[in-house]
Design a protein that fits this description.
single chain; 3-stranded parallel sheet
Length: about 325
């Protein structure tokens, strides 16, 4: 499909050196020394790469050092800027090579997962599950309604904006938290990140759709959680590093947070001894909410469009900011 849509690409594809076909593109085959040498020879001869070698900053650094003709790398993840950061490349390399990501491809499935999390909190899923496990036909109680609920979406990039628009269509009042004013359909008001604690004290749910950067590290802090409205729902479809995880565990344990729905965690895979596994008001997904059967095609289509732009000297879609690496 790639060459059919952009015949100027001389595509070198050696699937036997990569993973078996799977929706889990993070799973890579172990190579023999001979295959590893062949793999490195291929990436070291390319003008552009479709994906960071082995999704590894270390492998990317090796490739960049060995391949002075490399001019463009398209990363598969939406947060591929962190792979570039992990490579610790020189200023010369960052100037020479353009990096782009697959941001936006995952917006729809992540928005759906975020909506699932918000609704699970509004409809008191932990209580429903607890009474079911006890085989108890509990006394009826009022569940939350969209029309009575306010959701703060923190981070209004493609994922956050898509989430906000869908939540608004369901009847939720949606506010945004972002570092600068942006156009965001469905968002009634946008607050600066410095006001996150105040926003948390007034909303029923928070959806985190943030990249993992130095600026977003533990943005959902102990102080923000202490100020949060009692029983608040926390949903994270961004990066696990944006949450102070021990503080979240404490807030879930004492009930200040009613439910946390997490597609990402601070350390991945989530360690077996993490309290999050056992908490009845935490739902853990193994960083899988973005994956769909359409994902490979959508990423390939984005790559083809960026290849056309690269060949025609036009600005790339989703070019990585190599100062903040997102």
């Amino acid at each position: 499909m790639i060459v059919e849509r952009e015949p100027r690409i001389d595509l070198v594809h050696a699937p036997e050196l990569l993973a078996e076909p799977s929706v889990d593109w993070m799973t890579w085959s172990k190579r023999t020394p001979e295959d590893q040498a062949r793999f490195e020879q291929l990436v070291d001869s390319a003008d552009a790469l479709y994906g960071v070698p082995d999704h590894s900053g270390k492998a990317l650094a090796r490739t960049v050092a060995a391949n002075p003709k490399l001019r463009w790398v398209h990363t598969i993840p939406a947060g591929g800027g962190q792979q570039v950061k992990a490579a610790n490349l020189s200023e010369e390399a960052l100037e020479r090579i353009a990096f782009s990501t697959s941001a936006g491809v995952h917006a729809a499935p992540l928005a759906e997962f975020a909506i699932f999390g918000v609704l699970a909190g509004a409809k008191q899923l932990p209580w429903l599950q607890a009474t079911q496990r006890r085989r108890e036909w509990a006394p009826r109680r009022a569940l939350g309604r969209a029309a009575d609920s306010t959701v703060a979406v923190v981070g209004l990039g493609s994922i956050g904006c898509h989430t906000a628009e869908k939540l608004a269509q369901l009847g939720f009042r949606v506010v945004g938290v972002h570092r600068r004013p942006v156009e965001a359909p469905g968002v009634s008001e946008i607050f600066p990140v410095e006001e996150l604690a105040r926003v948390a004290s007034e909303v029923d749910a928070i959806v985190l759709a943030l990249p993992g950067t130095a600026e977003t590290e533990k943005m959902l802090s102990r102080e923000v959680l202490a100020a949060a409205k009692p029983g608040i729902t926390i949903v994270n479809v961004g990066r696990g590093t944006t949450v102070d995880e021990p503080a979240l565990v404490e807030a879930l344990t004492d009930g200040r947070v009613g439910l946390a729905v997490l597609d990402v965690t601070y350390v991945e895979p989530l360690p077996a001894d993490s309290p999050l596994w056992e908490l009845p008001n935490a739902i853990i997904a193994p960083h899988t909410a973005a994956i769909s059967t359409d994902e490979p095609r959508l990423i390939a289509e984005l790559f083809v469009e960026n290849a056309r732009r690269f060949l025609d000297g036009e600005p790339l879609i989703n070019r990585v900011n190599t100062r903040e690496f997102y």
